[in-house]
Q: What sequence folds into this?
């Protein structure tokens, strides 16, 4: 079966689950005219992409209040994150200042920046700080606060206060979900507060997301697509998102994985 037919089937499954909250494999197989085994493969794929949650005999919505475990997110869509990171790094000139927030995609960006010269990096991500502190050509400033043991994120009012003392050329922001109306969504209120501070104090805001974040609906609202300068992802976004990008003059950069050297840049 062609890739377009498989993708259409995946979209149908996602649409039905979003409408009902849960769908059984048998019901999906009847609606789509395929075998239950085919639906199980589809559900497994969508679950690995972080788009649905597997249940015995079916699939349901991904939680809006709890993210996928950090250890799983580290390896989830890793080639795509690496490709996105390379694309972002190509847009950051030497001798720049930048914020980098919490997230596995932003950590990939930090790794991609290690070949740069004379960067000034402010971060509330302990993993980013540890990685970049080895670079003698960089100055790394870490915002002080409570360190989360599960992912190295640093949050709290003191983080927001310290981040607010800087004005950087670029803000590199990750997010857990982008709704169809352009809302930027995440799971943790304290993490969102820090990210908002970064957005307010960045001359340009680069949002870095894999395709799995489109249509995902965590609980906490960070902001809107109209507030960013550029979106970096690995596949063309859904039509509604593309329309919003066009309306607000936001640059779209698409990196195709696993061809990490490929740079498809689209201005819309």
A:
């Amino acid at each position: 079966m062609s890739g377009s037919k498989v993708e259409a089937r995946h979209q149908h499954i996602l649409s039905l689950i979003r409408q009902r909250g849960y769908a059984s494999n048998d019901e999906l197989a009847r609606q789509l005219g395929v075998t239950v085994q085919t639906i199980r493969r589809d559900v497994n794929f969508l679950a690995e992409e972080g788009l649905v949650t597997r249940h015995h005999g079916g699939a349901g919505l991904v939680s809006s209040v709890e993210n996928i475990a950090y250890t799983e997110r580290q390896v989830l869509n890793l080639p795509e994150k690496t490709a996105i990171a390379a694309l972002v790094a190509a847009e950051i000139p030497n001798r720049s200042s930048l914020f980098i927030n919490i997230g596995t995609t932003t950590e990939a960006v930090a790794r991609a920046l290690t070949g740069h010269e004379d960067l000034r990096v402010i971060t509330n991500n302990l993993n980013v700080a540890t990685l970049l502190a080895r670079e003698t050509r960089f100055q790394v400033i870490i915002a002080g606060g409570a360190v989360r043991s599960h992912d190295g994120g640093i949050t709290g009012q003191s983080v927001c206060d310290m981040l607010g003392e800087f004005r950087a050329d670029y803000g590199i922001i990750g997010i857990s979900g982008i709704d169809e109306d352009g809302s930027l969504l995440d799971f943790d209120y304290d993490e969102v507060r820090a990210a908002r501070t970064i957005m307010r104090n960045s001359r340009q805001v680069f949002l870095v997301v894999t395709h799995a974040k489109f249509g995902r609906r965590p609980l906490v609202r960070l902001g809107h697509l109209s507030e960013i300068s550029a979106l970096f992802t690995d596949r063309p976004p859904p039509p509604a998102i593309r329309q919003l990008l066009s309306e607000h003059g936001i640059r779209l950069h698409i990196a195709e994985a696993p061809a990490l050297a490929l740079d498809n840049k689209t201005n819309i």
